[in-house]
Amino acid sequence: DSGVTQTPKHLITATGQRVTLRCSPRSGDLSVYWYQQSLDQGLQFLIQYYNGEERAKGNILERFSAQQFPDLHSELNLSSLELGDSALYFCASSEGLADTDTQYFGPGTRLTVL
Amino acid sequence: GQSLEQPSEVTAVEGAIVQINCTYQTSGFYGLSWYQQHDGGAPTFLSYNALDGLEETGRFSSFLSRSDSYGYLLLQELQMKDSASYFCAVRDSNYQLIWGAGTKLIIKP
Q1: What ranges in chain B are assigned the alpha helix state H?
Q2: What is the pLDDT of residues A95-105, one digit of tens each?
Q3: Which residues of A have a CB under 8 Å from any CB of B?
Q4: SS3 string of A24-72?
Protein backbone atom coordinates (compact mmCIF):
# COMPACT_ATOMS: atom_id res chain seq x y z
CA ASP A 1 0.00 0.00 0.00
CA SER A 2 1.60 3.24 -1.22
CA GLY A 3 -0.52 5.50 0.96
CA VAL A 4 -2.04 7.19 -2.09
CA THR A 5 -5.77 6.68 -2.49
CA GLN A 6 -7.86 7.10 -5.58
CA THR A 7 -11.62 6.99 -6.03
CA PRO A 8 -13.51 5.54 -7.70
CA LYS A 9 -11.73 2.31 -8.67
CA HIS A 10 -13.92 1.80 -11.70
CA LEU A 11 -16.05 4.18 -13.71
CA ILE A 12 -18.26 3.37 -16.66
CA THR A 13 -19.86 6.21 -18.54
CA ALA A 14 -21.07 7.26 -21.96
CA THR A 15 -19.52 9.44 -24.64
CA GLY A 16 -20.10 13.14 -24.13
CA GLN A 17 -20.32 12.83 -20.37
CA ARG A 18 -18.14 14.42 -17.69
CA VAL A 19 -16.45 12.64 -14.79
CA THR A 20 -14.30 13.59 -11.82
CA LEU A 21 -11.50 11.43 -10.48
CA ARG A 22 -10.23 12.01 -6.99
CA CYS A 23 -6.82 11.49 -5.42
CA SER A 24 -5.51 11.83 -1.87
CA PRO A 25 -1.71 11.93 -1.66
CA ARG A 26 0.45 10.32 1.00
CA SER A 27 0.51 12.21 4.25
CA GLY A 28 3.06 15.01 3.99
CA ASP A 29 3.49 14.85 0.21
CA LEU A 30 3.03 18.20 -1.51
CA SER A 31 3.28 17.13 -5.16
CA VAL A 32 0.54 15.33 -7.04
CA TYR A 33 0.84 13.95 -10.56
CA TRP A 34 -1.78 12.61 -12.94
CA TYR A 35 -1.05 9.97 -15.59
CA GLN A 36 -3.07 8.24 -18.27
CA GLN A 37 -2.30 4.67 -19.30
CA SER A 38 -4.17 3.18 -22.22
CA LEU A 39 -4.29 -0.59 -22.70
CA ASP A 40 -0.77 -2.06 -23.02
CA GLN A 41 0.71 1.43 -23.32
CA GLY A 42 3.19 3.40 -21.29
CA LEU A 43 2.42 6.14 -18.85
CA GLN A 44 1.42 9.48 -20.32
CA PHE A 45 2.11 12.33 -17.95
CA LEU A 46 -0.84 14.72 -17.81
CA ILE A 47 -0.20 17.34 -15.15
CA GLN A 48 1.54 18.05 -11.85
CA TYR A 49 0.53 20.18 -8.90
CA TYR A 50 2.73 21.30 -6.07
CA ASN A 51 1.20 22.72 -2.90
CA GLY A 52 -1.90 23.86 -4.74
CA GLU A 53 -0.20 25.37 -7.77
CA GLU A 54 0.14 23.90 -11.25
CA ARG A 55 3.80 22.95 -11.65
CA ALA A 56 4.12 21.14 -14.96
CA LYS A 57 1.89 20.21 -17.84
CA GLY A 58 2.26 17.23 -20.12
CA ASN A 59 0.03 15.93 -22.89
CA ILE A 60 -3.20 16.97 -21.28
CA LEU A 61 -6.16 17.62 -23.55
CA GLU A 62 -8.11 20.86 -23.28
CA ARG A 63 -11.17 18.77 -22.33
CA PHE A 64 -9.30 17.70 -19.22
CA SER A 65 -8.56 19.87 -16.20
CA ALA A 66 -7.28 19.35 -12.71
CA GLN A 67 -6.80 21.14 -9.44
CA GLN A 68 -5.22 20.62 -6.07
CA PHE A 69 -7.12 21.80 -3.02
CA PRO A 70 -5.79 23.34 0.22
CA ASP A 71 -5.93 19.95 1.94
CA LEU A 72 -3.67 18.73 -0.94
CA HIS A 73 -6.13 16.28 -2.43
CA SER A 74 -6.52 16.59 -6.16
CA GLU A 75 -9.24 16.08 -8.72
CA LEU A 76 -8.98 15.37 -12.43
CA ASN A 77 -11.99 16.44 -14.47
CA LEU A 78 -12.59 14.82 -17.84
CA SER A 79 -15.34 16.28 -20.02
CA SER A 80 -16.92 15.61 -23.43
CA LEU A 81 -15.65 12.07 -23.06
CA GLU A 82 -14.70 10.08 -26.13
CA LEU A 83 -14.19 6.35 -26.60
CA GLY A 84 -10.45 6.93 -26.76
CA ASP A 85 -10.43 8.32 -23.23
CA SER A 86 -10.99 4.82 -21.89
CA ALA A 87 -7.85 4.12 -19.86
CA LEU A 88 -6.36 3.63 -16.44
CA TYR A 89 -5.77 6.96 -14.72
CA PHE A 90 -3.11 7.03 -12.06
CA CYS A 91 -2.39 9.61 -9.46
CA ALA A 92 1.03 9.73 -7.83
CA SER A 93 2.47 11.84 -5.06
CA SER A 94 5.93 12.82 -3.92
CA GLU A 95 7.38 14.86 -1.09
CA GLY A 96 8.33 17.91 -3.04
CA LEU A 97 10.23 18.93 -6.13
CA ALA A 98 13.66 17.44 -5.49
CA ASP A 99 15.09 15.39 -8.34
CA THR A 100 15.48 12.45 -5.98
CA ASP A 101 11.81 12.45 -5.04
CA THR A 102 10.25 9.05 -5.53
CA GLN A 103 6.72 9.01 -6.90
CA TYR A 104 4.22 6.84 -5.06
CA PHE A 105 1.33 5.68 -7.19
CA GLY A 106 -2.26 5.11 -6.24
CA PRO A 107 -4.15 1.99 -7.41
CA GLY A 108 -5.65 3.86 -10.34
CA THR A 109 -9.14 4.53 -11.65
CA ARG A 110 -10.22 2.44 -14.62
CA LEU A 111 -12.41 4.55 -16.88
CA THR A 112 -14.53 2.90 -19.53
CA VAL A 113 -16.34 5.12 -22.01
CA LEU A 114 -19.10 3.36 -23.94
CA GLY B 1 12.01 16.28 -28.81
CA GLN B 2 12.44 14.26 -25.68
CA SER B 3 12.47 10.49 -25.86
CA LEU B 4 13.40 7.38 -23.96
CA GLU B 5 13.99 4.14 -25.80
CA GLN B 6 13.67 0.74 -24.20
CA PRO B 7 12.88 -2.68 -25.70
CA SER B 8 9.18 -3.49 -25.83
CA GLU B 9 9.62 -7.05 -24.62
CA VAL B 10 12.30 -9.25 -23.09
CA THR B 11 12.07 -12.98 -22.39
CA ALA B 12 14.21 -14.84 -19.87
CA VAL B 13 14.29 -18.07 -17.91
CA GLU B 14 13.61 -18.42 -14.21
CA GLY B 15 16.86 -18.22 -12.24
CA ALA B 16 18.69 -16.38 -15.02
CA ILE B 17 19.94 -12.78 -15.30
CA VAL B 18 18.32 -10.21 -17.57
CA GLN B 19 19.29 -6.67 -18.52
CA ILE B 20 16.79 -4.04 -19.67
CA ASN B 21 18.37 -1.10 -21.47
CA CYS B 22 17.22 2.48 -21.66
CA THR B 23 18.65 5.26 -23.80
CA TYR B 24 17.41 8.77 -23.43
CA GLN B 25 17.39 12.11 -25.18
CA THR B 26 16.03 14.86 -22.97
CA SER B 27 16.46 18.56 -22.35
CA GLY B 28 18.51 18.44 -19.20
CA PHE B 29 19.03 15.49 -16.94
CA TYR B 30 18.77 15.08 -13.21
CA GLY B 31 18.49 11.34 -12.84
CA LEU B 32 17.24 8.03 -14.20
CA SER B 33 14.56 6.10 -12.35
CA TRP B 34 13.17 2.62 -12.80
CA TYR B 35 9.65 1.52 -11.93
CA GLN B 36 8.00 -1.89 -11.96
CA GLN B 37 4.37 -2.45 -12.87
CA HIS B 38 2.52 -5.75 -12.63
CA ASP B 39 -0.49 -6.27 -14.88
CA GLY B 40 -3.40 -4.21 -13.63
CA GLY B 41 -1.32 -2.77 -10.81
CA ALA B 42 0.26 0.55 -10.00
CA PRO B 43 3.88 1.36 -10.85
CA THR B 44 6.24 1.00 -7.92
CA PHE B 45 9.65 2.62 -7.53
CA LEU B 46 12.72 0.38 -7.93
CA SER B 47 15.80 2.58 -8.18
CA TYR B 48 17.25 5.98 -8.96
CA ASN B 49 20.65 6.89 -10.45
CA ALA B 50 21.88 10.47 -10.52
CA LEU B 51 25.57 9.67 -10.90
CA ASP B 52 27.46 7.30 -13.18
CA GLY B 53 27.89 3.79 -11.95
CA LEU B 54 26.04 0.84 -10.53
CA GLU B 55 23.52 0.92 -7.70
CA GLU B 56 22.63 -2.40 -6.14
CA THR B 57 19.50 -3.23 -4.20
CA GLY B 58 19.16 -6.93 -3.52
CA ARG B 59 18.58 -8.86 -6.73
CA PHE B 60 18.11 -5.65 -8.71
CA SER B 61 20.87 -3.30 -9.88
CA SER B 62 20.71 -0.17 -11.96
CA PHE B 63 23.48 1.40 -14.00
CA LEU B 64 23.92 4.84 -15.49
CA SER B 65 26.35 6.35 -17.97
CA ARG B 66 25.58 10.04 -18.38
CA SER B 67 28.13 10.49 -21.15
CA ASP B 68 26.36 7.80 -23.19
CA SER B 69 22.82 8.87 -22.15
CA TYR B 70 22.28 5.25 -21.27
CA GLY B 71 21.24 3.14 -18.37
CA TYR B 72 20.09 -0.36 -17.61
CA LEU B 73 18.25 -2.37 -15.03
CA LEU B 74 19.77 -5.72 -14.15
CA LEU B 75 17.63 -8.40 -12.55
CA GLN B 76 19.38 -11.44 -11.12
CA GLU B 77 18.10 -14.83 -9.96
CA LEU B 78 14.87 -14.22 -11.79
CA GLN B 79 11.68 -15.34 -10.13
CA MET B 80 8.27 -15.79 -11.71
CA LYS B 81 6.99 -12.87 -9.64
CA ASP B 82 9.41 -10.60 -11.54
CA SER B 83 7.18 -10.94 -14.60
CA ALA B 84 6.01 -7.37 -15.07
CA SER B 85 6.56 -4.26 -17.13
CA TYR B 86 9.57 -2.12 -16.32
CA PHE B 87 9.68 1.59 -17.06
CA CYS B 88 12.67 3.91 -17.15
CA ALA B 89 12.04 7.59 -16.51
CA VAL B 90 14.25 10.66 -16.69
CA ARG B 91 13.78 13.87 -14.77
CA ASP B 92 14.48 16.71 -17.17
CA SER B 93 15.53 20.31 -16.62
CA ASN B 94 11.91 21.27 -15.84
CA TYR B 95 11.79 18.58 -13.15
CA GLN B 96 9.28 16.70 -15.28
CA LEU B 97 9.53 12.93 -15.25
CA ILE B 98 9.70 11.73 -18.86
CA TRP B 99 8.71 8.06 -19.17
CA GLY B 100 9.78 5.30 -21.53
CA ALA B 101 7.10 3.12 -23.12
CA GLY B 102 7.98 0.20 -20.87
CA THR B 103 9.55 -3.23 -21.30
CA LYS B 104 7.42 -6.30 -20.73
CA LEU B 105 9.53 -8.97 -19.02
CA ILE B 106 8.32 -12.51 -19.68
CA ILE B 107 9.82 -15.21 -17.50
CA LYS B 108 9.63 -18.84 -18.49
CA PRO B 109 10.05 -21.71 -16.04
Answers
A1: none
A2: 877 766 789 99
A3: 2, 33, 41-45, 48, 55-56, 58, 90, 92, 97, 99-100, 102-108
A4: ECCCCCCEEEEEEECCCCCCEEEEEEECCEEEEECCCCCCEEEEECCCC
